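Weekly structure sync, notes
Attendees: PL (lead), two postdocs, one rotation student
Agenda item 3: pending single-chain targets
PL asked that the sequence for the first pending target be pasted directly into the notes so everyone works from the same version. It is reproduced below exactly as submitted, 254 residues in total.
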Amino acid sequence: MLDDLLSGDVFAISLVFARLGSAVMLLPGFGETFVSPRVRLMIALSVTVVVTPVVSGYLPPMPSGLLPAFMLIAGEILIGIFLGAMVRMLLSALHIAGVIIGFQTSLANATFFDPSNSQQGAVFAAFLNIIGVFLIFVTDLHHLMLMTIADSYTLFRPGAPLPFGDFSEMVVRLVSDSFVLGMQLAAPFIVIAIVFYTGLGLLARLMPQIQVFFIAIPLQIVLAFSVLAMTLSTGMFWFLSYFQDSLTRFTGQG
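Predicted structure, written out during the meeting:
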């Protein structure tokens, strides 16, 4: 009897770890490349031990064969990857906004290593990504990310057929919403750039002997940083509201 109890507990922990561990590998802050894999593994195991008693009522009994157990764990891994990628797509709105701002401020060629995307990116994109991850942890929204994974058992029951149609629909919706939010965050810079370049075009027609675009680039950069200083706080609050509202759809609070 003790052997059956222990094997059941090990199976439950393994099943929860398959979903939660694969999600933690992609979550912002937890799944960054600069975070040690051992640290990520310890976080995933610690949260799994806490979450398993809460979601044990949603777990199916232990399969009798190896193939059903493998299929069950593979399904949990796919759900975890979907949840982690979903949160990562929410953060991509800041990257989109930063790239657009870089193009509108003549700073697209000023690159910096973006730790959130593990590649070189525009300075504004890297800056907004770092600020976004920082604010997610400062405002305790990382608790909401973990709560989303725990509450996902009410939506995606282990052992049930995977709703690939719903997965694809949600991915398309998140990508489109993130792109729209990125455009909205960069909207002040787009408006300023249109007015600025229109004025430079008129000035170039009036004084063709002067290289107005070469002269105006420092002014454009100063103007861009001024607009960033005035809009950064409002834009980040807007992003945090969007981030929270998107995650609450998967929790009992939504």
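Discussion points:
- The chain has eight helices and two strands.
- The radius of gyration is 23 Å.
Action: rotation student to compare against the earlier draft before next sync.
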